[in-house]
Every structure is written in C-alpha cells, then in structure tokens.
Fold:
Amino acid sequence: MSQASLFDISQKLVKIIETKDAERVRHWSKVLEKQKNPMVTVEVFALIRRQLAQKDENLNLWFQTIYFEEYNPEVKKLWLDFVDLCSLSLEEKTQIG
Structure:
C-alpha cells in the first residue's frame, strides 16, 4: 500500500476520532487491527497519532484509551514503543518518497 493511501486512510480515521463517537472508533479500531498486513496497522496507527498530536493531545489520549481498553498496560506500552520505533522509519519513508 502506498504512503499516500496510508495517509488518506489515517486522515479519514482521524475525522471519525474527532467525532468522539466511541462506538465508531471502537469499530474502526477493530477493523484496523484485522488487516492482513500488521505493518499497515502500525503505519496507520503511527500516522493517526502524529496527526492527533499536532491537533489535540487530549483527543490523542482519548483515542488511545478507546483503542487499548481491552489490553493490559504492559501490552499497551509495548505496542506504543513499537509504533514509536516504526514511526522513525515511516518519517524517513515520507521524506524520501
């Protein structure tokens, strides 16, 4: 999947998150997690976090609360650490491509 496609998907999901409709966010979070390629999930999640952090950090935290509500804190921390590491690679890709 191209970087442009990933960015478009993340923008659409950010718009859903901005509605603060927890049920819709839960639904699309589950859809995101069921991707055949887990790196697509990681890249889209990283892009969502980056966009939300630029717009509204409280909304970013709200999204993470919804996204990780079924996970224990250790898994959440590991996932966020992994996404942060992948974000560095993603930033390089977007600068190169």
Notes: Residues 3-96 form one domain. The chain has a mean pLDDT of 90. The two ends are 13 Å apart (CA to CA).
